[in-house]
User: What shape does this take?
Amino acid sequence: MHYYKRNIGDYHKKAGRLSMLEHGAYTLLIDACYDRERFPTEADAIDWCWARSDEEITAVRFVLGKFFELDGAVYVQTRISEEIEAYKGMAIKNKEIAENREKAKREGRNGTSTKRAPVVNESPPNQEPLTTNQQPRTLKEPKGDQQADAEQKSPRRNWVKELVGLGVEEKFAKDWMAVRKAKKASMTDTALEAIQREAGIAGITFGEAVRIAAENSWQGFKAAWVNKAESGVGGQFMTKQERVEAANQRVLEEMNAAADAMLAQQASNHQPALDDQGFVIEGDFFREN
Assistant: This one.
């Protein structure tokens, strides 16, 4: 018997106060009894638990006295005995079922026993024979609106080719379509018209809008998403890197302007005092400015 149910709650309720060594001895004894399907003597129990030291042998003897009953020279436990007997009964029943099944199979193969009625291949009387020269079945043709819809279906569109036809460079068209595919955004006429409309609001061509979208990994385009360059090539839109550089340049210019203003303020606070004839007054001495 290589399997048995182990109820953790029942085990700890009964053996929760055992020491670690005693827990090990009890577990090994239970496993050995189920595996061997028999109960041990004291010598068997010490051998089954591989007890060597005095402490281990003492733990085995304590467990035998606490959880097993001495029946002659053998230590038994009622619960283990009942489960082993139930297992043996189930094993015998399963064996009988398997033997009966194999017997039925053998008898069926030998033709000695069958409950099915014999199959008659002849046609019943007054029954017209079936023929095989019938017209082959075909799929029903679509009718009405279904047929019209089937005729209007078009092949898969080549959006890269269409974008190139609208003035987009091929490499930007391919890159932008790859961005939309990665973001699981399908291309439709509605999306195309929206981008053309936003490009007009931004005052740029459709090709420039697609280029900006591809360079910034945008699946679409909005006029509000871009800013015109304040320097450099006029009328062009900056890429993400160009916008970062322009922002850094503006910060640097603002810092320089603030430093210049501070120096000018300091200089104005230290203007020398002049007399009515234009000479610098320094204590009791005068010199021409």
Remarks:
- The two ends are 118 Å apart (CA to CA).
- Residues 229-235 have pLDDT under 50 and may be disordered.
- The CA atoms of residues 278 and 289 lie 7 Å apart.
- The longest strand covers residues 279-282.
